[in-house]
Specification:
It contains no helices and 13 strands. The protein has 135 residues and is an all-beta fold. The chain has two domains: 30 residues, no CATH class; 89 residues, no CATH class. The radius of gyration is 19 Å and the shape is elongated.
Length: 135
């Protein structure tokens, strides 16, 4: 039988089972958060049309300039999730941040369009993350 040790940093040597209801304290200890709900379920870093790093992303379809559809390895439970995204681009020699328009959410993929408004569509670096519930 393993022994647990309690000290100023917490408990060590503890064997525990994490569940969907597991909560953990914030860094300052003033609040708690649900461990499972607080994690990104997928994230993606692409540069032009190349996946440079990702988590829970199976592939990215190139639908044209600045138009991509990432597919998830593990599906979401519904299409009511959020995809905060950002793209860094330079247009006419002026560096600017342009928010990515993410629409057409499906349980297995989402749609990202780089550009819009006064900015032309462009293939550039994009970072996206998904927050929501896995199936």
């Amino acid at each position: 039988m393993a022994l647990s040790k309690i000290d100023a940093d917490g408990v060590s040597g503890l064997q525990a089972t994490l569940t969907a209801a597991t909560t953990v304290p914030s860094e300052g200890g003033a609040a708690t958060t649900n461990l499972v709900q607080g994690l990104a379920k997928a994230w993606l870093h692409i540069n032009t049309d190349t996946i440079e790093d990702s988590f829970n992303i199976a592939s990215v379809a190139d639908n044209g300039t600045g138009d991509h559809s990432p597919s998830l390895t593990n599906a979401m439970s519904n299409a009511n999730y959020t995809v905060p995204s950002n793209v860094q681009l330079t247009f006419l020699g002026v560096a600017m941040n342009n928010h990515v328009s993410s629409s057409s959410y499906r349980t297995y993929s989402f749609y990202v369009n780089h550009g819009g408004g006064n900015n032309p569509a462009i293939d550039t670096q994009n970072d996206s993350a998904i927050h929501g519930d896995l199936a």
